[in-house]
Design brief:
The chain is an alpha/beta fold. It has 10 helices and 10 strands. Helix 7 runs antiparallel to helix 8 and helix 8 runs parallel beside helix 9. It starts with a strand and ends in a 17-residue tail after the last helix. The structure holds 5'-O-[(R)-(carboxyoxy)(hydroxy)phosphoryl]adenosine and zinc ion. The site of zinc ion has 5 residues, from helix 4. 5'-O-[(R)-(carboxyoxy)(hydroxy)phosphoryl]adenosine binds next to helix 5 and helix 6.
Length: about 325
Protein backbone atom coordinates (compact mmCIF):
# COMPACT_ATOMS: atom_id res chain seq x y z
CA UNK A 1 0.00 0.00 0.00
CA UNK A 2 1.40 3.39 -1.07
CA UNK A 3 0.29 6.26 1.18
CA UNK A 4 0.84 9.93 0.42
CA UNK A 5 1.27 11.84 3.69
CA UNK A 6 0.73 15.55 4.24
CA UNK A 7 1.87 17.63 7.22
CA UNK A 8 0.76 21.28 7.61
CA UNK A 9 0.02 21.68 11.33
CA UNK A 10 2.45 24.52 11.99
CA UNK A 11 5.25 26.11 9.99
CA UNK A 12 6.55 23.24 7.84
CA UNK A 13 4.84 21.94 4.70
CA UNK A 14 5.79 18.27 4.44
CA UNK A 15 4.81 15.65 1.85
CA UNK A 16 6.01 12.04 1.61
CA UNK A 17 5.10 8.66 0.15
CA UNK A 18 5.39 5.56 2.32
CA UNK A 19 5.01 2.09 0.85
CA UNK A 20 4.05 -0.69 3.29
CA UNK A 21 6.29 -3.09 1.33
CA UNK A 22 9.25 -0.95 0.29
CA UNK A 23 9.34 1.73 2.99
CA UNK A 24 9.78 5.43 2.37
CA UNK A 25 9.82 6.25 -1.35
CA UNK A 26 10.14 10.05 -1.26
CA UNK A 27 9.85 12.97 1.11
CA UNK A 28 9.92 16.72 0.57
CA UNK A 29 9.74 19.61 2.99
CA UNK A 30 9.33 23.34 2.74
CA UNK A 31 10.15 25.21 5.93
CA UNK A 32 8.57 28.61 6.63
CA UNK A 33 11.00 29.24 9.48
CA UNK A 34 12.75 32.20 7.79
CA UNK A 35 9.45 33.97 7.17
CA UNK A 36 8.33 33.67 10.80
CA UNK A 37 11.76 34.44 12.32
CA UNK A 38 11.22 38.10 11.45
CA UNK A 39 8.25 38.13 13.88
CA UNK A 40 9.93 36.06 16.63
CA UNK A 41 7.40 33.23 16.32
CA UNK A 42 4.86 31.60 14.02
CA UNK A 43 2.22 33.99 12.58
CA UNK A 44 -0.80 31.69 12.00
CA UNK A 45 -2.35 33.55 9.06
CA UNK A 46 0.98 33.75 7.21
CA UNK A 47 1.52 30.04 7.88
CA UNK A 48 -1.84 29.07 6.31
CA UNK A 49 -1.25 31.21 3.23
CA UNK A 50 2.20 29.75 2.69
CA UNK A 51 0.92 26.17 3.05
CA UNK A 52 -1.61 26.97 0.29
CA UNK A 53 1.20 28.22 -1.97
CA UNK A 54 3.57 25.32 -1.32
CA UNK A 55 1.45 22.21 -0.83
CA UNK A 56 0.44 21.26 -4.39
CA UNK A 57 3.90 21.95 -5.90
CA UNK A 58 5.36 19.73 -3.15
CA UNK A 59 2.88 16.94 -3.95
CA UNK A 60 3.98 17.03 -7.62
CA UNK A 61 7.65 17.11 -6.59
CA UNK A 62 7.19 14.13 -4.24
CA UNK A 63 5.42 12.02 -6.87
CA UNK A 64 8.20 12.86 -9.32
CA UNK A 65 10.91 11.98 -6.79
CA UNK A 66 9.23 8.58 -6.23
CA UNK A 67 8.78 8.08 -9.98
CA UNK A 68 5.05 7.64 -9.48
CA UNK A 69 1.87 9.18 -10.81
CA UNK A 70 -1.24 9.95 -8.78
CA UNK A 71 -2.82 6.69 -10.03
CA UNK A 72 -0.21 4.74 -8.05
CA UNK A 73 -1.32 6.21 -4.72
CA UNK A 74 -3.55 3.92 -2.63
CA UNK A 75 -4.48 6.37 0.15
CA UNK A 76 -3.88 9.86 1.49
CA UNK A 77 -2.96 10.62 5.13
CA UNK A 78 -3.01 14.18 6.45
CA UNK A 79 -2.36 15.73 9.86
CA UNK A 80 -5.78 16.34 11.43
CA UNK A 81 -4.47 17.97 14.63
CA UNK A 82 -3.41 19.25 17.03
CA UNK A 83 -2.02 22.45 15.54
CA UNK A 84 -2.96 25.84 14.08
CA UNK A 85 -6.50 25.56 12.75
CA UNK A 86 -5.94 27.48 9.49
CA UNK A 87 -2.75 25.55 8.75
CA UNK A 88 -4.44 22.22 9.51
CA UNK A 89 -7.40 23.12 7.25
CA UNK A 90 -5.07 23.55 4.26
CA UNK A 91 -3.61 20.04 4.57
CA UNK A 92 -6.90 18.41 5.58
CA UNK A 93 -9.04 19.88 2.80
CA UNK A 94 -6.35 19.42 0.13
CA UNK A 95 -5.63 15.85 1.26
CA UNK A 96 -9.31 14.95 1.43
CA UNK A 97 -10.00 16.51 -1.99
CA UNK A 98 -7.06 14.70 -3.66
CA UNK A 99 -8.21 11.38 -2.19
CA UNK A 100 -11.71 11.98 -3.52
CA UNK A 101 -10.43 12.89 -6.98
CA UNK A 102 -8.17 9.83 -7.03
CA UNK A 103 -10.91 7.53 -5.69
CA UNK A 104 -8.87 6.35 -2.69
CA UNK A 105 -9.44 6.51 1.08
CA UNK A 106 -8.15 9.35 3.27
CA UNK A 107 -7.24 9.32 6.93
CA UNK A 108 -6.69 12.11 9.47
CA UNK A 109 -3.59 11.45 11.58
CA UNK A 110 -2.74 12.73 15.06
CA UNK A 111 0.40 14.86 14.74
CA UNK A 112 1.94 13.46 17.94
CA UNK A 113 1.27 9.88 16.85
CA UNK A 114 3.24 10.79 13.74
CA UNK A 115 6.16 12.01 15.87
CA UNK A 116 5.91 8.97 18.14
CA UNK A 117 6.18 6.53 15.23
CA UNK A 118 8.93 8.43 13.34
CA UNK A 119 11.74 6.22 14.79
CA UNK A 120 9.97 3.30 13.04
CA UNK A 121 11.25 4.75 9.75
CA UNK A 122 14.84 3.97 10.79
CA UNK A 123 16.83 0.83 10.05
CA UNK A 124 16.60 -1.01 13.40
CA UNK A 125 13.27 0.15 14.78
CA UNK A 126 12.05 -0.64 18.31
CA UNK A 127 9.49 -3.40 18.81
CA UNK A 128 6.35 -2.99 20.92
CA UNK A 129 6.03 -2.40 23.86
CA UNK A 130 8.25 0.62 24.62
CA UNK A 131 8.33 3.90 26.51
CA UNK A 132 8.17 7.06 24.39
CA UNK A 133 9.29 10.55 25.37
CA UNK A 134 7.52 13.07 23.13
CA UNK A 135 9.26 16.42 23.26
CA UNK A 136 8.15 19.06 20.78
CA UNK A 137 7.25 22.74 20.72
CA UNK A 138 3.75 21.97 21.97
CA UNK A 139 4.05 18.73 23.95
CA UNK A 140 6.15 17.01 26.62
CA UNK A 141 4.74 13.59 27.35
CA UNK A 142 5.88 10.19 28.55
CA UNK A 143 3.79 7.45 26.96
CA UNK A 144 3.70 3.68 27.31
CA UNK A 145 3.21 2.31 23.79
CA UNK A 146 1.84 -1.24 23.56
CA UNK A 147 0.77 -1.24 19.89
CA UNK A 148 -0.34 1.21 17.18
CA UNK A 149 -3.16 3.17 18.85
CA UNK A 150 -2.52 1.76 22.31
CA UNK A 151 -1.03 4.64 24.21
CA UNK A 152 -1.03 5.07 27.96
CA UNK A 153 -0.08 8.53 29.21
CA UNK A 154 2.44 8.15 32.03
CA UNK A 155 3.18 11.83 32.60
CA UNK A 156 3.18 15.22 30.89
CA UNK A 157 4.09 18.85 31.34
CA UNK A 158 1.76 20.77 33.60
CA UNK A 159 2.70 24.03 31.87
CA UNK A 160 5.20 24.79 29.07
CA UNK A 161 6.47 22.12 26.68
CA UNK A 162 10.24 21.49 26.60
CA UNK A 163 10.59 22.97 23.09
CA UNK A 164 8.54 26.00 24.07
CA UNK A 165 10.88 26.52 27.06
CA UNK A 166 13.88 26.33 24.71
CA UNK A 167 12.26 28.89 22.39
CA UNK A 168 11.37 31.28 25.23
CA UNK A 169 14.82 30.99 26.86
CA UNK A 170 16.35 31.71 23.44
CA UNK A 171 14.26 34.86 23.09
CA UNK A 172 15.44 36.07 26.54
CA UNK A 173 19.03 35.58 25.37
CA UNK A 174 18.34 37.57 22.20
CA UNK A 175 18.39 34.56 19.86
CA UNK A 176 16.11 34.04 16.86
CA UNK A 177 13.10 31.73 16.46
CA UNK A 178 13.06 28.71 16.67
CA UNK A 179 15.51 28.94 19.52
CA UNK A 180 16.08 25.29 20.45
CA UNK A 181 18.83 24.53 17.94
CA UNK A 182 20.45 27.96 18.56
CA UNK A 183 20.53 27.48 22.34
CA UNK A 184 22.06 24.03 21.77
CA UNK A 185 24.73 25.46 19.47
CA UNK A 186 25.57 28.29 21.87
CA UNK A 187 25.69 25.86 24.81
CA UNK A 188 28.63 24.07 23.14
CA UNK A 189 30.79 27.13 23.95
CA UNK A 190 29.41 27.47 27.47
CA UNK A 191 30.99 26.62 30.82
CA UNK A 192 28.57 24.03 32.17
CA UNK A 193 29.74 24.53 35.76
CA UNK A 194 29.25 28.29 36.08
CA UNK A 195 25.49 28.28 36.75
CA UNK A 196 23.28 25.58 38.16
CA UNK A 197 19.63 25.83 37.13
CA UNK A 198 16.89 23.89 38.95
CA UNK A 199 15.70 20.45 37.78
CA UNK A 200 11.96 21.03 38.23
CA UNK A 201 9.80 18.33 39.85
CA UNK A 202 12.60 15.77 40.05
CA UNK A 203 12.68 15.73 43.88
CA UNK A 204 9.17 14.29 44.14
CA UNK A 205 7.70 11.07 42.77
CA UNK A 206 5.76 10.94 39.53
CA UNK A 207 6.37 11.44 35.82
CA UNK A 208 4.95 14.92 35.25
CA UNK A 209 7.05 17.89 34.16
CA UNK A 210 7.01 21.65 34.67
CA UNK A 211 9.21 24.03 32.71
CA UNK A 212 7.72 27.46 33.42
CA UNK A 213 9.78 28.00 36.60
CA UNK A 214 12.94 27.32 34.62
CA UNK A 215 11.91 30.08 32.23
CA UNK A 216 11.62 32.59 35.12
CA UNK A 217 14.96 31.39 36.50
CA UNK A 218 16.54 31.98 33.09
CA UNK A 219 15.06 35.47 32.80
CA UNK A 220 16.33 36.43 36.27
CA UNK A 221 19.82 35.08 35.51
CA UNK A 222 19.91 36.99 32.21
CA UNK A 223 18.82 40.23 33.89
CA UNK A 224 21.21 39.83 36.85
CA UNK A 225 24.20 39.44 34.54
CA UNK A 226 23.58 42.24 32.08
CA UNK A 227 26.15 45.02 32.29
CA UNK A 228 24.73 48.34 31.03
CA UNK A 229 21.88 46.35 29.48
CA UNK A 230 24.22 44.03 27.58
CA UNK A 231 24.87 40.33 28.17
CA UNK A 232 28.51 39.32 27.53
CA UNK A 233 28.90 36.60 24.87
CA UNK A 234 30.55 34.14 27.28
CA UNK A 235 27.84 34.69 29.93
CA UNK A 236 25.17 34.09 27.29
CA UNK A 237 26.83 30.81 26.33
CA UNK A 238 27.17 29.81 30.00
CA UNK A 239 23.46 30.49 30.57
CA UNK A 240 22.55 28.50 27.44
CA UNK A 241 24.63 25.55 28.73
CA UNK A 242 23.06 25.71 32.20
CA UNK A 243 19.57 25.91 30.72
CA UNK A 244 20.16 23.02 28.31
CA UNK A 245 21.64 20.87 31.09
CA UNK A 246 18.66 21.55 33.35
CA UNK A 247 16.13 20.49 30.68
CA UNK A 248 18.19 17.49 29.56
CA UNK A 249 18.82 16.23 33.07
CA UNK A 250 15.17 16.67 34.06
CA UNK A 251 14.04 14.70 31.00
CA UNK A 252 16.66 12.01 31.65
CA UNK A 253 15.63 11.53 35.31
CA UNK A 254 11.97 11.11 34.31
CA UNK A 255 12.78 8.71 31.45
CA UNK A 256 14.80 6.54 33.82
CA UNK A 257 11.89 6.54 36.24
CA UNK A 258 9.46 5.60 33.45
CA UNK A 259 11.65 2.64 32.40
CA UNK A 260 11.91 1.45 35.99
CA UNK A 261 8.20 1.93 36.66
CA UNK A 262 7.07 0.03 33.54
CA UNK A 263 9.87 -2.55 33.57
CA UNK A 264 10.36 -1.89 29.84
CA UNK A 265 13.78 -1.92 28.22
CA UNK A 266 13.25 0.28 25.16
CA UNK A 267 13.00 4.07 25.16
CA UNK A 268 12.18 6.09 22.08
CA UNK A 269 12.45 9.86 21.88
CA UNK A 270 10.55 11.86 19.29
CA UNK A 271 9.59 15.44 18.42
CA UNK A 272 11.78 18.48 17.70
CA UNK A 273 13.72 18.44 20.99
CA UNK A 274 14.73 14.80 20.37
CA UNK A 275 17.16 16.23 17.79
CA UNK A 276 19.15 17.70 20.71
CA UNK A 277 22.58 16.01 20.83
CA UNK A 278 23.14 16.57 24.54
CA UNK A 279 19.80 14.90 25.29
CA UNK A 280 20.73 11.93 23.08
CA UNK A 281 24.13 11.58 24.77
CA UNK A 282 22.75 11.74 28.30
CA UNK A 283 19.97 9.29 27.52
CA UNK A 284 22.45 6.89 25.88
CA UNK A 285 24.46 6.71 29.13
CA UNK A 286 21.31 6.36 31.22
CA UNK A 287 19.86 3.47 29.14
CA UNK A 288 23.24 1.70 29.14
CA UNK A 289 23.16 1.63 32.95
CA UNK A 290 19.54 0.42 32.85
CA UNK A 291 20.43 -2.34 30.33
CA UNK A 292 17.91 -0.75 27.99
CA UNK A 293 18.10 0.64 24.43
CA UNK A 294 17.46 4.10 23.00
CA UNK A 295 15.80 4.79 19.63
CA UNK A 296 15.33 8.03 17.72
CA UNK A 297 14.71 9.23 14.19
CA UNK A 298 17.29 10.95 11.96
CA UNK A 299 17.26 14.72 12.74
CA UNK A 300 15.03 15.69 9.79
CA UNK A 301 12.33 13.29 11.00
CA UNK A 302 12.51 14.60 14.60
CA UNK A 303 11.00 17.94 13.59
CA UNK A 304 7.77 18.21 11.59
CA UNK A 305 7.72 16.23 8.32
CA UNK A 306 5.41 14.38 5.94
CA UNK A 307 7.13 10.99 6.28
CA UNK A 308 5.90 10.43 9.84
CA UNK A 309 2.33 11.22 8.76
CA UNK A 310 2.50 8.88 5.75
CA UNK A 311 3.86 6.11 8.01
CA UNK A 312 1.32 6.59 10.83
CA UNK A 313 -1.53 6.86 8.28
CA UNK A 314 -0.38 3.66 6.57
CA UNK A 315 -0.40 1.73 9.88
CA UNK A 316 -3.91 2.99 10.69
CA UNK A 317 -5.19 2.12 7.20
CA UNK A 318 -3.67 -1.36 7.39
CA UNK A 319 -5.61 -1.76 10.65
CA UNK A 320 -8.79 -1.03 8.70
CA UNK A 321 -9.35 2.59 9.69
CA UNK A 322 -10.14 5.60 7.46
CA UNK A 323 -11.88 8.97 7.83
CA UNK A 324 -14.59 8.65 5.12
CA UNK A 325 -15.59 11.98 3.62
CA UNK A 326 -15.10 14.09 6.73
CA UNK A 327 -12.45 16.80 6.63
CA UNK A 328 -10.91 16.39 10.05
CA UNK A 329 -9.15 19.41 11.56
CA UNK A 330 -8.90 19.61 15.34
CA UNK A 331 -6.66 22.33 16.86
CA UNK A 332 -6.84 20.55 20.25
CA UNK A 333 -6.91 16.78 20.29
CA UNK A 334 -5.73 14.35 22.97
CA UNK A 335 -3.83 11.39 21.53
O1 LIG B 1 8.23 18.69 16.65
P1 LIG B 1 8.49 20.09 16.22
O2 LIG B 1 9.20 20.32 14.92
O3 LIG B 1 7.18 20.91 16.13
C1 LIG B 1 6.12 20.75 17.03
O4 LIG B 1 5.31 19.81 16.82
O5 LIG B 1 6.11 21.54 17.98
O6 LIG B 1 9.32 20.75 17.41
C2 LIG B 1 9.79 22.06 17.34
C3 LIG B 1 10.50 22.39 18.65
C4 LIG B 1 10.88 23.84 18.76
O7 LIG B 1 10.50 24.30 20.03
C5 LIG B 1 12.41 23.82 18.62
O8 LIG B 1 13.05 24.87 19.29
C6 LIG B 1 12.75 22.47 19.23
O9 LIG B 1 11.72 21.62 18.77
N1 LIG B 1 14.06 21.97 18.77
C7 LIG B 1 15.13 21.80 19.58
C8 LIG B 1 16.19 21.32 18.76
N2 LIG B 1 15.73 21.22 17.47
C9 LIG B 1 14.42 21.61 17.51
N3 LIG B 1 15.27 21.99 20.89
C10 LIG B 1 16.48 21.72 21.44
N4 LIG B 1 17.55 21.29 20.72
C11 LIG B 1 17.45 21.07 19.40
N5 LIG B 1 18.53 20.63 18.71
ZN1 LIG C 1 5.59 18.48 15.64
Amino acid sequence: MKVLGIETSCDETGVAIYDSEHGLLADTLYSQVKMHAEYGGVVPELASRDHIRKLLPLVSETLKEANLSSQDIDAVAYTAGPGLIGALMVGASTGRAMAMAWGVPAIGVHHMEGHLLAPMLEESPPVFPFVALLVSGGHTQLVKVTAIGQYELLGESLDDAAGEAFDKAAKMMGLDYPGGPLVAKLAEQGDRTRFRFPRPMTDRPGLDFSFSGLKTFTLNTVNDHKVDGVLADQTRADIAAAFEDAVVETLTIKCKRALQQTGLKQLIIAGGVSANQRLRDRLESMVAKEHAALFYARPKFCTDNGAMIAYAGCQRLLAGQSSDLVIEAKPRWAM
